[in-house]
Amino acid sequence: MDDVFIDAFFYGNDDEANKRFRQRLLEEQAPQEEEEEREIAIVEVDFFVPENNAFGNSFRNYQDSLRRIAVEELYRTNHAFQTYEFAMAKKEEYGRLEKGVMSIWECCELLNEYVDESDPDLDEPQIEHLLQTAEAIRRDYPDQDWLHLTALIHDLGKVLLHPAFGGEPKWCVVGDTFPLGCAFSEAIVHHKLFVANPDGRNPEYNTKLGIYIENCGLENVAMSWGHDEYLYLVAKGNNTTLPPAALFIIRFHSFYALHQGGAYTYLMNNEDKEMLKWLHVFKKYDLHSKSKERINEDEVKPYNLSLIEKVRSTFIEL
Ligand SMILES: [Fe+2]
Ligand SMILES: [Fe+2]
Question: Where along this sequence does the record place binding of substrate (predicted)?
């Protein structure tokens, strides 16, 4: 970890010093005059969703996983406490983006310390997962640079686990996400554990549509709080130039009830249906982590830094 990250948190609770530091970083990365236009956008090609990813794997094996019991415990807490009000409060708190300023690459490195216990297949540090996902997508979709970058950053919201970001417990950072404000679908993993969730007894929230109208669009749906939602807020708050499909992947990649279970389609609008196909592609790579093929961080770093340049987000406010 280098000096910038250390500085970002060095000022601790000194608000004035923090403000000055953030201002300096943001000014440093502001585009100087009219730069030559750099774009990161979807390239029109014949669309395909692979059976398996570039490493030949497709996973999500809860049955044989040694982590099965730990995973169930995580969902026991998650399903009891993820209520509409809880998620709204977290969104309000973290949406202010007052936790720090750091570069995207530093943020990737920060995740080195964490392994995602909710993932039955994954026992690599998070940065390895990010690089493997990005490299595997890059092999199969060489022209879609936006997708490579999306893969690189998709789990950065897991910094919520870090003490500097509140040291949030795993049950509200990792694991599957789902809509709040309407009935919990049986397609959600460990659905029975929702019996402990007060929203399930609230007549305002426990019908099929709940507080929503049919085909209202997923953008208008409140999701359970976790790393997906947090990074989505960060990307929006930093005015990312990533295409809408990238934001869709970032926000819904843990929404398995939708992209694997086929539930909640009645909340989708036509735009969501269009973007769902990219999420189907992405999940093939997000789940490849049993691969023991290690990525050489130094080798892939220059390419990834060049992508980060393209979205003008060397430093981000979190
Ligand atoms: Fe994730
Ligand atoms: Fe992931």
Answer: 60, 116-118, 158, 175-176, 253-254
219 pLDDT band (50/70/90 cuts)? Answer: very high
Report residue 69's pLDDT band, with 50, 70 and 90 as the boundaries. confident
Domain borders along the chain are 3-317
Residue-wise pLDDT for 151-176, tens only, equals 999 999 999 998 888 899 999 999 99
Distance 6 CA to ligand 1 centre (A): 25
The pLDDT of residue 145 is: 94
| Token code pair at residue 39 | 């774009």
Cα 38 to ligand 2 centroid, rounded to whole Å: 27
Residue 38 annotated as binding?
no
3 is in an annotated binding site: no
- Please check whether residue 15 is in contact with residue 99, taking contact to mean a CB–CB distance below 8 angstroms: no
Res. 14: pLDDT tops 70: no
Distance 139 CA to ligand 2 centre (A): 17
Residue type at position 218: L
- DSSP conformation class of 143: T
Does 24 appear as a known binding residue? no
Name the pTM for this structure: 0.82
Instruction: Measure the CA–CA gap between 82 and 80, rounded to whole angstroms.
Output: 6
pLDDT band for 123, please (50, 70, 90 cuts). Answer: low
In this structure, how many other beta carbons lie within 10 angstroms of the beta carbon of residue 86? 17
Of 31, 86, 119, the C-alpha closest to 311 is 31
Helix (H, G, I), strand (E, B) or coil at 315: strand
Burial of 200 (0-12, 13-18, 19+ CB in 10 A): middle
| 231: three-class secondary structure by DSSP | helix
pLDDT surpasses 90 at 60: no
For 8-43, letters b (16+ CB in 10 Å) and e give bbebeeeeeebeebbeebeeeeeeeeeeeeeebeee
Classify the C-alpha dihedral 289-240-222-99 as positive or negative.
Answer: positive
